[in-house]
Amino acid sequence: MIYNKEINKAIKLAYEKHQGQFDKNGLPYVFHPWHLAEQMIDEDSIIVALLHDILEDTDTSVTDLVAMGFKKEVIDTLVILNHHEDTDYFEYIKMIAQNELAKKVKLADLYHNADLTRLDNVSEKDLIRSKKYQESIDYLNTH
């Protein structure tokens, strides 16, 4: 992963906003976006990976991101990655497929979320969710 002023700003924001959040296995949530960012090779994709859940899972708004000086393309991609509960999940995936940056980060997100080895105990719900993620991976890889 590369580091510069903008990426460091995103790292600090992700760390601050995901403070106190934990993944399904009880690990600090911030390790998830960090894992995605480590796979990216350019500034925009690293920032989007670090902040991919910032609008959905924290009190951060688009207005906040604009005020912090993040690039329009980055913010627009974060908006696309923000899954609203009233939007069908596969319609959401179809929207992501239309944006290369969103697709790149979402694929990394889905691969990580579908990895059942991250869990100490795998439930039936986890298996169903993993299958849904695999279907999304298949779709994004072909569109």
Low-confidence segments = none
Q: Number of DSSP strands? A: 0
CATH second-level architecture: Orthogonal Bundle
Largest sheet: none
The sequence of SSEs as H and E is HHHHHHHHH
The share of residues in helices is 55-70%
Mean pLDDT: 96
Number of helices, counting only DSSP H or I runs of 4 residues or more: 9
Multimeric organization: single chain
CATH superfamily: Hypothetical protein af1432
Distance between the termini: 27 Å
Give the CATH topology.
Hypothetical protein af1432
In terms of DSSP E residues, the strand content is: under 5%
Overall structural domain count: 1
Global shape? globular
Radius of gyration: 15 Å
What structural class do you assign from the helix and strand content? mainly alpha
CATH class: Mainly Alpha
